[in-house]
Specification:
By secondary structure, the protein is of the alpha+beta class. The chain is built from 20 helices and 25 strands.
């Protein structure tokens, strides 16, 4: 109210202590009056809240039902499955490698055995400090630290760091006690005699699987069956003492017993390597057998290392895989065939000229058969064989004809494998008789145009040595399973291919080769040795034999002793001899050196004094297992110098083609 007692008019300022307020100065509550916002009413909001609460309650009930249902499944309907799953997470399975079966010689001497070697492995999940672990292992394992560190970062639970380490290395790793690093015993092959019989036995890979030789061929038999060990372990990989543990033992592979004699094998390898080294040859092969049973006593292949010049055992078994043109050692085929037919005999006279023209080629001998007007006015079939006459042999083959000679080759086993059971064996090659042409018969008669393995050649000579039976070679004697049960392999198959009288006549002629002919360096004092020499040009990779000043040769000697009652047979093949290339000078000395020791070791009695052609007895017994130590080869430490002179063209063995004919291979004993 104003002083006059009247209220101020609406909209006008009310005086206050004499101050008149404007509209702009009105109280804030009048200026900021809240205007209700447009939106749902409280009733709508309450409805929405109720709906949300209902849905939340349903969700909680559903989750509760799921949990209850899961508990029911876990506790009532299928607890075993989850118990097993939890247990599986704690179990660790480890493969127990089966020891590989051993390989023994005929006397029970080990050639290859299995021994355990420790391998270093890691579980990357358990490695606490990968970089520090790699740093600690690098000097012990002799590996790069970066390589080890990379392996420790892999995602798996098992990784090899190094396989089959020496025992001292494994002990050093174990001493470090690094988390996640362990050792594992793995069987590996051990050769007590070094690389003895390497070409026959073969080798295995790092996982103990056969990759060559008998190791590969008999892999399933030797390998055995792996076992398994299951153990319960803690989170850090440690074994739980009271935890579950199951072991399924591994079953070792079967042992194999060969017909080889370890001491004879060492003897043959040493003699062969020494001769290859002495005559500067590229390599050589030797095969020693029992001609009656077909058992292989020694099988060796050596080769000169081109980089070092050293002669060492070779991994290739040339005895069964090396088909070559054998040369004059094949001359027994036409001669034996004619004798068996009754056409000729050892003393049948034969006029042998210095050369013979067949079709468009002239075949010659290096030197004529030496005759005497009084004691030897004419040559004989025995002379042809003893002097390894190309011309005389071709004359005899012409009496047979193409088809009869082809049939004789098949009877002796040429052109097919012996089926002795070695996967690497090849069958050589004999052309179909329908494909023979003008010079095929004379070439085959002296050991060319066909190829054969040393095993085939020696098996053919065994038929002469044992009285006329072709005997399949045998290398595996028996097998012994994990329980010790031994199963002997059956005796070798045999088939008569000539009359006993024919074999006796051939032995007489082959004895003359050693006594009076080209094989004199195979002779053994006190014993009658029978055999045949062969020298042939070696076919080169370009398909020719080279020229008269530049040729490679294959020199061969094959024989048996004692001649009348043979106990051993042997073939020696020298590849590319340099200083002596005839079979009689390059290969025969190896036969003599080996036969001299073997016959004495077998207690084969020498001939009686005063009657050098009559044996007093041949009491064969097994060679003592320690008679000859298994030694390494003894080549020179430096490569031998090249020969000072090359063989003169005029002395090259065998037939010399005419100017109009194509070059043909030659042969000389």
């Amino acid at each position: 109210m104003t002083s006059s007692g009247r209220r101020p008019a609406p909209g006008r300022a009310r005086p206050h202590h004499g101050v008149v307020r404007s509209r702009a100065a009105a109280p804030a509550r009048q200026r900021l009056r809240r205007v209700p916002a447009a939106g749902p009413s409280r009733r709508v909001l309450r409805a929405r809240m109720s709906t949300r609460l209902a849905w939340l309650t349903c969700a909680i009930l559903v989750c509760f039902c799921i949990v209850v249902g899961k508990l029911v499944v876990l506790q009532v309907t299928g607890p075993d499955r989850y118990v097993d799953r939890a247990r599986f997470q704690r179990l660790s399975a480890e493969t127990l490698r089966a020891p590989r079966g051993a390989i023994y010689d005929r006397n029970g001497q080990p050639l290859v055995t299995s021994v355990d070697r420790q391998s270093i492995w890691a579980d990357p999940k358990l490695v606490v400090d990968p970089r520090g672990t790699a740093r600690a292992l690098a000097p012990v394992l002799g590996m790069d630290e970066v390589t080890i560190h990379s392996s420790l970062l892999t995602s798996g639970r098992f990784v090899y760091l190094q396989r089959q380490v020496p025992d001292e290395t494994a002990a050093a790793v174990q001493a470090l006690a690094l988390p996640g690093i362990g050792t594992l015993a793995e069987p590996t092959r051990n050769r007590p005699a070094g690389d003895l019989a390497e070409a026959v036995i073969g080798s295995t890979d790092i996982d103990n699987f056969g990759v060559s030789g008998l190791e590969r061929q008999l892999d399933e038999l030797l390998r055995g069956t792996d076992g398994e060990m299951v153990a319960e372990r803690g989170p850090l990989g440690q074994s739980i003492p009271s935890g579950e543990r199951r072991v399924q033992p591994a079953v070792r592979g079967s042992n194999v017993v060969l017909t080889l004699d370890r001491d004879l094998q060492a003897m043959v390898e040493i003699a062969l390597a020494n001769q290859v080294d002495a005559i500067q040859a590229a390599g050589g092969t030797a095969l020693l057998m029992n001609p009656t049973t077909g058992e292989i006593l020694a099988m060796a292949t050596v080769k000169r290392d081109a980089s070092t010049g050293l002669v060492r055992n070779d991994a290739e078994n040339f005895s069964v895989s090396g088909a070559y043109e054998p040369g004059s050692v094949m001359k027994i085929v036409p001669v034996a065939a004619l004798i068996d037919k009754g056409v000729v005999g050892p003393q049948t006279p034969q006029d042998v000229p210095s050369s013979i023209l067949v079709h468009d080629a002239v075949f010659v001998d290096d030197h004529p058969i030496i005759l005497d007007p009084v004691t030897r006015p004419r040559a004989t079939v025995l002379d042809v064989m003893a002097e390894s006459s190309n011309v005389g042999t071709i004359q005899l083959a012409q009496k047979l004809g193409d088809r009869a000679l082809a049939s004789a080759l098949a009877v002796f086993g040429f052109g097919r494998t012996t089926k002795m059971g070695l996967d690497a064996e090849v069958g050589g090659s004999v052309p179909l008789v329908e494909d023979w042409y003008g010079t095929t018969l004379p070439s085959i008669a002296i050991g060319h145009t066909i190829t054969a393995t040393p095993l085939q050649v020696l098996t053919a000579y065994n038929a002469i040595a044992n009285g006329g039976e072709w005997v399949r070679p045998k290398l595996i004697s028996s097998q012994i399973d994990a329980s010790g049960y031994q199963v002997d392999r059956p005796a070798a198959d045999r088939q008569r291919i000539m009359k006993p009288e024919t074999a006796a006549a051939m032995r007489t002629m082959l004895s003359a080769v050693v006594n009076d002919g080209t094989g004199s360096k195979a002779a053994v004092e006190g014993y009658e040795v029978a055999g045949k020499t062969g020298t042939a040009w070696k076919l080169r990779a370009n398909g020719n034999y080279g020229d008269g000043k530049d040729r490679d040769y294959m020199a061969t000697f094959v024989g048996f002793a004692p001649a009348e009652n043979p106990r051993i047979s042997m073939i020696v093949v020298i590849d590319e001899p340099r200083t002596a290339y005839y079979g009689g000078s390059a290969a025969a000395p190896v036969f003599g050196a080996v036969a001299r020791q073997v016959l004495a070791g077998f207690d084969v009695m020498p001939y009686a004094a005063g009657n050098p052609r009559s044996p007093t007895g041949n009491n064969l017994r097994a060679l003592p297992s320690a008679a000859i130590p298994a030694t390494t080869l003894r080549p020179t430490t430096t490569p031998p110098p090249p020969p000072t002179t090359a063989p003169p063209p005029s002395t090259a063995p065998g037939p010399t083609p005419t100017a109009t004919s194509s070059p043909t291979a030659t042969s000389r004993g």
